[in-house]
Structures are given as structure tokens and as C-alpha cells.
Amino acid sequence: MIDEKRILVFTACYNEKENIKKLILKIREYLPFSSILIIDDNSPDNTSGVVKELQKNDSKLDLVIRDKKLGLDTAHKLAYQLAIEKNFDYLITMDADLSHDPKELINFKQNLEIYPFVIGSRYVPGGKCLMKGSRLTMSKLGNSMIKFFSSINCNEFTTSYRGFNLKKLGDFHLNLVKQTGYSFFMGTIFEIDNKKFEIKEIPIIFTDRQQGVSKIPKLEIFRTLINLAILTLNRLFVK
Ligand SMILES: Nc1nc2c(ncn2[C@@H]2O[C@H](COP(=O)(O)OP(=O)(O)O)[C@@H](O)[C@H]2O)c(=O)[nH]1
Ligand SMILES: [Mg+2]
Prior knowledge:
- It contains seven helices and nine strands.
- It is α/β, with parallel strands linked by helices.
- The protein has one domain: Spore Coat Polysaccharide Biosynthesis Protein SpsA, Chain A.
- The radius of gyration is 17 Å and the shape is globular.
- Bound molecules: guanosine-5'-diphosphate (GDP) and magnesium ion (MG).
């Protein structure tokens, strides 16, 4: 008998009406037997309506609609909790804006057979970040700074294209991550490393969104720097 792992692919979305259908259909193309979970924060553009339409022909497409915009970190924590409760083997998380190419899902799946945690990295050979101007500079600089200060052997801390082998990660849970907003993604890597789980980077080509607008508030960059300082001091003096 083939040992087919139970995979949950998760995306959080807010105002992704133009992207969500394409994303879901692409996920289906690459991982036809996976389950898909969408957490939508009551998007005013009626993203959930598009998902409900697709649900009519897809029994493994789940939708959670939360009352209001509650942030990416809590959406990811909820997805992790649901994946554990429903006894999935792998959880793969990605953005809904097509910045993360669903083609890579196959590579995630293959690597999750070996590693507890897999991250799609723009900053390893074969990876690329197609963002432009100051966003590209901030991303490159930010990720190098986090690597330097944390001494964690990883080149990518901020993108959310990630795979979790839930059976190998033991008592790790995203609920352990204290940082909120976009710092949550950096905090997750610190927590994985604190628990001594191996981090496997696989190259991804990250394209900037073609449709819709970025929801990242400008202040997040400063919050990330402050959180980096706190996490670094914590590692040096508490651990
Ligand atoms: N459910 C939910 N999804 C969100 C929220 N904020 C952002 N997202 C989604 O998270 C992903 C990343 O956000 P995005 O705006 O593309 O961030 P950027 O790529 O860093 O500029 C996208 O799929 C968004 O739709 C939120 O508060 N709630
Ligand atoms: Mg984006």
C-alpha cells in the first residue's frame, strides 16, 4: 500500500478576490489529493464568495470566515491548531496573492518526507526575489541582519511559504510564538531553532503581487527591528 501523507495547504486572505480562484486551482493541479484551508477575515471584496463557489466542486476545500481583520499571525496559529486537531501529517502555508508559486508544493512535499520544517527561501542558490526598489532592499537587508544577529543557519526568515511536518515537530506549536504581525514569521524560525529542529531551505522564486494591494503596514519594519533586538537578547541571556 502506498503511504499517502495527509496534507493541508493553508492560506490566509484579506481582499484577494482577484487571486484566490487562480491559487486554489493551481494548488489542486499540483496536489490533487490535499486538503485546502482558507481563512478569510470577512474581506469586504467578498473573497469568501469566490471560495464558496469553488467549494461546490471541491469537497476538500475548507473555509473559515472570521468576523473581522484579526491579523496574519492569529490566522496561521488557528490553521496550525486545526491541522493538529484533524490529524494531518503536513501543513504547508503560503500567501494568497500568487507571490508563492504553487508549483513548489511538490518540492515541499518531498522535503517534508525527510525534514521537520521546510522554508521556501529567496536567498539560497536557485532562489530569487523579484520585488523591486526599496521593498527588495529592505527584504535582503532585513534577512541578512536577522541571520547575523540570531546566528541561525538560515537565509530566509520572513516569507510565509513554509512546510511543517506535524508528526516530527513534537511539542512545537505556532502558539508558542509571541511576536505578532509580520514579526511572527521571524519569531517562528527562532522558536523552531530554540527547539533544535533542523531547518531545510528550498529555493523559491518570489514574485510581487500582480493584483490587489499589500497589507503590510509601513510601521512593521520598525517593529521587526525591535522584535529582532528582543529575540537576540533573549537568546544570548535567557537560553
Ligand atoms: N486572514 C487574513 N489574511 C491576511 C491579513 N493580512 C494579510 N493577509 C493575507 O496574508 C498574505 C500576505 O499579505 P500581503 O499583503 O501579500 O503581504 P506582503 O506580501 O508582505 O505585502 C496575503 O495572502 C493576504 O491576503 C489578515 O489580517 N487576515
Ligand atoms: Mg504579498
